[in-house]
Amino acid sequence: MSPAQRSARCRRFMPGGLPKYVRCYDNNRTVDRYTVVFTGRYRRAKDDEFIHLGMSEHPFHPQGFGQHGSSRDQIDRPRSGHLGRRIKFEDLPADCRQCVRQTYRELWDLNEPDPEGELCPPKV
Prior knowledge:
Elements: H1 3-13, E1 22-26, E2 34-38, E3 50-55, E4 66-71, E5 85-87, H2 94-107
């Protein structure tokens, strides 16, 4: 993929550095307080299952929680009340945003660094 194609792909899937195809929830009650549902058509090589991610505020901490799951159906459709209230990606804690970006880049094949070694998008 040329640098121009890569840049266009990054802008398409992560406009402004924000994952385009995610829905985020905060239940404010449990250890896996935050849930992110990955949407879109990434499933082509992923056993045709939808991916979601449950996290505490610090998913990378030894006492934190960060776990992926999958389902044949989106876990927030037709109802999402069991996941808490819908929030913006920007409202997730910094560690959660990092965890989501890592998964998102993998799902959409955006992990190839550019010639300067930056991932899509540059680290925020």
